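Handoff note, outgoing to incoming analyst
You'll be picking up this chain. Sequence as last confirmed:
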Amino acid sequence: MAEMEDLVQSSSPLEQHILSSSSHPARNVGGWKAIRYILGNESFEKLASMSLIANMTVYLKTNTTWEGMVAVTLTAAVPQLTPPKCEGESHCLRPEKWQLGFLFVSLGFLSIGAGGIRPCNIAFGADQFDTRTAKGRANLESFFNWWYFCFTIALLVTLTGVIYIQTDVSWVIGFAIPTACLCFSISIFLIGHHTYICKKPQGSIFADMLKVITAAYRKRQLTIAPDSQHSFYDPPMNDSDVHLKLSRTDRFKFLDKAAIITEPSELDAQGRSKNTWRLCSLQQVEQLKCLVAIVPVWAKKLTGKDKRLTMPQRIKIGIVMSILCMLVAAIVEKRRRESALKHGSFTSPVTIALLLPQFVLSGLTEAFAAVAIMEFTPHKCQKA
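Most recent structure output, in case you need it:
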């Protein structure tokens, strides 16, 4: 408790609030109270970013240079930030070097911002539920569906209303809308900060995977006895994460070598591994086993009698839809290109309705596979 108080006192005001909340379990944090802010943040962020990404080609063709988020609004509003407009399709002046520099810096900021929020938002939302209970696990699955629903609605608004404003009304207004949406996204996230459950980062899963593979390779000469009388490195977990602990399994036994303690000198005075690239915990080994196990998910079958399709079934259907989507898209693009070449133009006279089948298949792919993959949590992976 003293350590927690010292940590709170040495933190910023926002961090103090979060840490204090985590030390009082009775406080009403997490759950759907926090999820509503996360979903609002995700919806406006997706609307902002997709408004720029979806119409990038048109803006490039129109203005010959393109910038990110706030900067892209400036390029539409400030003529000095873009080269002169093209006279026809073949008479375009090259942009100045400083204009290109502005372009690359803006794209860099946009990439960094998107890379920071997109991998973390859905994981942060999943942290708001207690998966030790059946209700928490059910709410987690519901959250995945709501997250994808909000994403789809934001995409629908983007590809209809915002794109229309950008191309047919005004680029300035069209780019000001996603900029304002991003401001709303940040504001919503900050307003809900008092409701969040913030879990302490525990390192990179990719580094753990590499460590297990390296340690198992270094100890490849060891033989695992059938009676499993080896001494395995299995340190205790934090109380808050003990429910996530994976039991040792008999699959992919060669990976177990990474957790075998060959000599006492591999541990320090506190019983911790001195070299994590030579001795890994059983938890790290089992996490890698889970990942390897879901690769051939279409070779696996669940025997439960659910009313709805099981997750492996939905993933398999999504994979098939994805293959069909690519095949249909290839056929349509071949026809479009041949038609354009026949008329000696960059624009093909074929009807836009030809794009409908691939869009339908793409939507089915997302509906079946994307949501199911997000639901495919480690505890279900272990059952597969």
